[in-house]
Write a structure and sequence with these properties.
four-stranded parallel sheet; Rossmann fold; alpha/beta; 3 domains; six-stranded mixed sheet; about 50% helix; Helix Hairpins; about 375 residues
């Protein structure tokens, strides 16, 4: 894939914000083995309903793509089926949006049966409205007034097949949800146990932290969505507390809503956790924006009111030794307790565990008072 990236800069957005988003989109292209040849940013109040960037700009983009040998144009925002058709009529290359890339990455990375079902559901849900959009276009392939052309018949058959698949997968995922609920009930009976859901922006270091906390062997890679399958591991503390850590899927800006909906069975683990351990990469300039993105998604899945402890990760990229952790001012900028750490080097891990234990003690005291 040799791609040109396209973004629009709306009223309240700065060009730098759009460039930062396109930089992330470039990372998604790289994760799929593609190469980004360049990017185009257009300032406009809202997307053009027909061509997203306007017909004139689309024609210019066609010349650019031909001139540099691009075989794909990737938009940073969702495209409608009609926008895709209209753009393809002017630019004879593959037209994709951010959702297409994220879904493709997910489909290549998942390993467990459950995660595969969730991704398949998301892809089918994403495809369905585009099939609806293609129906009228396909119907022009044949037939006369008052009859159905072969294109329309084909699209209707495909719609029925997709709907049937969606129904089947949803039923299977409901069974998964029931099994998870039973497993959680069993864990709830255990005393001195605290359930911790590790969450955060993609590539923030969640898997590295999971390994550091539990000595597990979760795959680590410097790329978005390196691990997608939920992992659970246990750590026992000297205080006699059993910590159950669950590493969940990472989040990203403009995440396809179909994915959030499909992964709700998995994300139930976040809703049922006693504590959310929010991992943040503080070595990037927009780390506070990434926190907001994750918080918005947590609120969307019904976990916005959960207690949060921030693991302010990758501190080793900002300081030279663990003795300097206390000099970082990042904890002052977050809305809950924040512990600077380096999951890769093991800095601050003991203090992080201490804070989790302190959280457990506070819960126990509150329960004792209520009794």
């Amino acid at each position: 894939m040799r791609a040109i990236l396209v973004g629009i800069c709306k009223d309240k957005e700065s060009r730098e914000e759009v460039k930062e988003s396109l930089k992330e989109l470039k990372g998604l292209v790289k994760a799929l083995g593609g190469k980004t040849l360049g990017y185009v940013i257009q300032r406009r109040n809202s997307p053009d309903p027909r061509y997203f960037i306007g017909e004139g700009k689309a024609k210019d983009l066609s010349l650019i793509a031909k001139g540099i040998g691009a075989d794909a144009i990737i938009f940073d925002d969702p495209l409608t089926s009609s926008q895709i058709r209209n753009i393809e009529s002017l630019i004879p290359v593959k037209i994709l949006d951010r959702s297409d890339l994220v879904l493709e990455i997910f489909s290549k990375r998942v390993r467990t049966k459950e995660a595969k079902l969730q991704v398949e559901l998301a892809k089918l849900t994403h495809e369905l409205p585009r099939i609806y959009g293609k129906g009228k276009e396909l119907s022009r392939l044949g037939g006369s007034v008052g009859t159905r052309g072969p294109g329309e018949q084909e699209s209707e058959i495909r719609r029925r097949l997709i709907k049937a698949k969606i129904h089947r997968i949803k039923k299977e995922l409901q069974e998964v949800k029931k099994r998870r609920k039973e497993q959680r009930k069993k864990r709830e009976k255990e005393k001195n146990t605290i359930k911790v859901a590790i969450t955060g922006y993609t590539n923030a270091g969640k898997s590295t932290l999971m390994n550091a906390l539990t000595k597990s062997k979760v795959l680590i890679a410097d790329m978005p969505f390196a691990t997608l399958d939920t992992k659970t591991a246990v750590r026992y503390t000297r205080e006699g507390v059993k910590l159950i850590f669950t590493d969940t899927v990472g989040f990203i800006k403009k995440i396809p809503p179909e994915l959030i909906e499909s992964f709700k069975a998995t994300l139930e683990e976040v809703k049922e956790a006693d504590l959310i351990l929010h991992v943040v990469d503080i070595s990037v300039g927009n780390w506070l924006d990434n926190i907001k993105t994750v918080k918005d998604i947590l609120a969307e899945i019904g976990a916005g009111d959960k207690p949060v402890l921030y693991a302010l990760n990758k501190a080793d990229k900002l300081i030279d030794s663990p003795e300097d952790l206390n000099s970082l001012t990042h904890p002052l900028l977050v809305d809950s307790k924040g512990i600077p750490i380096s999951a890769e080097k093991g800095w601050g891990i003991d203090k992080l565990i201490e804070e989790i234990i302190r959280f457990f003690s506070d819960i126990s005291e509150n329960e004792g008072e209520s009794d």
